[in-house]
Amino acid sequence: MDCPSCGTHGISLVELEENLCGFKCSSCEGIWVKGFQYWKWLKAHGGILPENPADFAADVPLLDSRQAKICIECGHVMLRNKVGHEIPFYLDRCSVCGGIWFDKSEWETLKSRNLHDEIHLIFTAAWQKDNHKKEVELSYEKSVAEAIGEDEYDRLKSFASWLKKHPQKNLLIGYILQ
Ligand SMILES: [Zn+2]
Ligand SMILES: [Zn+2]
């Protein structure tokens, strides 16, 4: 098998985890995991581990290859989806055979956040919809902060969170609007 990212001939078998084998490219250091092996590993791994916050992310150099890739198992064009959850790269997965390509250090980064057992979910519409919703929220928050300045924005945020939790919040909002 040739590397789907850099084309290097012959990628070699590695043990990624207990019960999980992959194929590593000696040149770009990317890793190919066959679909059925991921599922087999996931089954042995048990339930999905709770996600670690962003500051748990492994501090490793990333190489997110941008080009479209062809599945080395079945020849289909692979899907490329954004991981989200403050992870800066995209993942490539074949929607036909389920094979996954990890660029250098991507597996390590996902594992440090406990997202390595949710790769199949990253490729669902629900995950991507949630990513989009969070991006919209973040950019709205950013534009408000820019409009009124960071200090004022911090005051606004703590006021808003106090208001949201207040048992009489509708009364208070009515008062403000008046
Ligand atoms: Zn390669
Ligand atoms: Zn495939």
Question: Would you give an account of this structure?
Answer:
The mean pLDDT is 93. The longest helix is centred in the last third of the chain and has 24 residues, at 125-148. The protein is 40% helix and 17% strand. The protein has two domains: 12-123, no CATH class; 129-177, no CATH class. Strand 5 and strand 6 (100-102) form a beta hairpin. It starts with 11 loop residues before the first strand and ends with a helix. It has six helices and six strands. It has a six-stranded antiparallel beta sheet with strand order 1-2-3-6-5-4. By secondary structure, it is an alpha+beta fold. Bound molecules: zinc ion (2 copies). The site of one zinc ion has 8 residues, from loops. One zinc ion binds next to loops.
